[in-house]
Each structure stands twice: as C-alpha cells, then as structure tokens.
Amino acid sequence: MVKLVNIGFGSIVSANRIIAIVSPGSAPIKRVVQEAREQGKLVDATYGRRTRAVVLTDSDHVILCAVQPETVAHRLTGKQSQSGRDGEE
C-alpha cells in the first residue's frame, strides 16, 4: 500500500521512500543538498519560501520543504498538533 505525506503547499511525497527528515542548518546537510543539486537529484518544494526541512529518500533524491521537520513527522505518523492544525501553510 502506498502512503503519501503532504510536505506543504500541495506537494506530496511517498512515505515509503523517506529515509530521514532533517533540519537544513548543519554543514553536513548543506553538503548533501549541494551534492544533490550537482547530480540533478534535488527537488525544491519550498515555492520560494525559506527551507525548514530536508527530506532524504531511498532513491538518493533530496527534497527541500518549507515546513518544520516536526510537522512533516507528525503528518507521517498521522498525529495532529495541539492547535488542531499541522503546519505553517
């Protein structure tokens, strides 16, 4: 069964392919993003907004999204935030 996860602003990713959801601030993650860009495996799903989470997939694709890693993780597990909303959309 294919499970899909909303990563913000109408973008959806297959949950089965996600390996990690990380913050973009560290130098190693910045290197991973740059290498993916050079290899043509970077997907920018931020729609011009600030990158708040980086999703790593089993196909070596790197997806940039504009919602917090915690928000994506909650959507992945099916939990709602305390306010009843899931994101910054």
Description:
The chain is α+β, with helices and mostly antiparallel strands. The longest helix has 13 residues, at 27-39. It has helices at 27-39, 69-77; strands spanning 4-8, 11-14, 18-22, 42-45, 53-57, 62-65. It is built from two helices and six strands; from the N terminus they run βββαβββα. The mean pLDDT is 90.
How many DSSP-defined strands? 6
Low-confidence stretches: none
- Number of helices, counting only DSSP H or I runs of 4 residues or more: 2
Helical proportion, percent range: 10-25%
Which geometry do the CA atoms define? globular
Order of helices and strands: EEEHEEEH
- Determine Rg (CA atoms, Å): 13 Å
Q: What's the N-to-C terminus distance?
A: 27 Å
Biggest sheet, spatial arrangement of strands: 3-5-6-4
Quickly list its features:
single chain, 89 residues, alpha+beta, four-stranded mixed β-sheet, two-stranded antiparallel ribbon, 2 helices, 6 strands, globular
Task: Please outline the helices and strands.
Elements lengths: L3 E5 L2 E4 L3 E5 L4 H13 L2 E4 L7 E5 L4 E4 L3 H9 L12
Parallel strand pairs: 4-6
Antiparallel strand pairs: 1-2, 3-5, 5-6
In short:
This protein is of the alpha+beta class. The protein is built from 2 helices and 6 strands.
